[in-house]
Amino acid sequence: MEWSNFPAKDLVLPYLDYEARCNLRSCSKSDLAIVDSTDFVPEKMEIQEIKSQMDTEKSIIRLKIDTFTVWFIGKNEKTRIERAWGEEKMEMEEIKEENRFDLLRRYIDRFLKNGVFEATSLAIVNPSFEPQAHWKIKTSNLLLECRGIPSTWVINWLNTVVPDTKLRDLEVHNWNLEGIAELPLIYEVSRKLCFPSAADLQDEHLERLKATNLDLVAARATVEGVKNVVQRILRSSGEISICAPLPYDFDPVILIPEDVKFQKMTSKNPGVSLFKIPAGNRILYHTQNIVRVIKKPEDEKRNYLLWPFHFN
């Protein structure tokens, strides 16, 4: 049976990636209509801005949707547009007498459904711009990497996430994460929560986290807060890495629940404490301000060197 006579095209479309859908749109007017009328959710979407090292006013904005990539290259009101499928760049290039940020915003607007653009995994990397007021994000896995931008921009990007979104993974990188503790969405993340820069998380915030895998720098947490969150992870199958202002005479044994058996291990690195915990086959290790609980590595001779953090 030929595609033109296939009676259930709408059942096939959800299994097509972005490239296949674009190719199908060009086959006929009826195919174009059915593609445009069927919701599409990319598996992976990435928005990345790459600053020019030679010209501070110039940058490249890279938008990737599954295997399709489009680049908006330029400065001021002149932009070159390049496209590629997979690793093969298309010969067609365009020059627009228009700002690259405006072009990107208009391109993204094409994917909005009732103001929402959706992807299974979404990465936003080094944006020098804030989201549009009408943008809403729906995704399972969100990476926001934006070192050096104002913390208010970080909050604005995270506030675009649709409230009922069931985030599985959330990872945010910025030098300043002030205000992030007030966002309800961080307490609904179900699997992995990663704030490897100083977040304004206190003990009460740590208690509310549902994620089973944590990678946090919590400069306002206390020993009691760290103890509670580590013990929760130890009783589950999760993993944790938390950096907090622990005292120099801190004894990491107090982190292990009384009902959990453990074995003290010898470390070749001074200042590092290691404990083998049979339950879950994991290792707890501590040095200065860092506590980690990870699954036991296959190679037990692995070097556990950790660089301590110091808080003023």
From TrEMBL:
Top-level taxonomic group: Eukaryota
Source organism of the structure: Caenorhabditis nigoni
Stated name of the protein: DUF38 domain-containing protein
